[in-house]
Design brief:
mainly beta, 2 domains, five-stranded antiparallel sheet, 12 strands, about 15% helix, about 45% strand, globular
Length: about 180
């Protein structure tokens, strides 16, 4: 069957069929190795925005000796057009995100319940209600190993017109996480 399909793309005396077929095979292989999410009760984008130019902001706050606090600084810089999304996500007990990456930065907070965050080396970090987690272009996944829904509020800053989420193959250590 595959030979018959290949012949349809083959141009006599040419290797052009390989150019057409190679991306299709690679795309299929990538789709087959991805781990889709399971257990999303709510997955809703509640706000979208975009800026056509680069973004640069910096805030520094000096230490206030009377209050006993430490100096604090934050810096945000994006080169080029950037999209901003706010998402509401509810993950059922036993649910997981599947292995993926983002073409930017995601900042999330757990509103209720808890999640387990796994990095590309399957290191687990448990995140409870009121805590924040960050995701980026490194392979990662989250799961809900609790007995109640985990509700998350998520903000993304990603490259303009890029997908918010890019499916990824599970790392070799994935079986230890219970996320395929």
């Amino acid at each position: 069957m595959y030979t018959k399909i290949l012949r349809q793309f083959q141009v006599p005396g040419s290797k052009r069929w390989r150019i057409v077929l190679a991306p299709a095979v690679l795309g299929l292989a990538g789709a087959l190795s991805a781990t889709p999410p399971v257990g999303f009760v709510v997955n809703q984008i509640v706000a979208i925005g975009s800026t056509p130019e680069s973004v640069g902001q910096q805030v520094q706050m000096a230490r206030s000796p009377d209050a006993g606090d430490e100096p604090w600084q934050i810096q945000l810089q994006a080169q080029g057009a950037t999209d901003f999304y706010v998402q509401q996500l509810v993950l059922a007990p036993g649910g997981y995100s599947g292995w993926h990456t983002h073409p930017g930065i995601l900042a999330g907070t757990v509103l209720s319940g808890s999640i387990d965050f796994f990095d590309e080396n399957c290191r687990k970090r448990s995140i409870a209600a009121g805590q924040v987690f960050l995701e980026n272009n490194q392979v990662h996944a989250i799961s809900n190993s609790g007995s109640v829904n985990a509700e998350l509020a998520i903000a993304y800053l990603v490259k303009h017109d890029a997908a918010r989420r890019i499916e990824a193959a599970a790392p070799v250590c994935a079986p230890s996480t219970m996320i395929p």
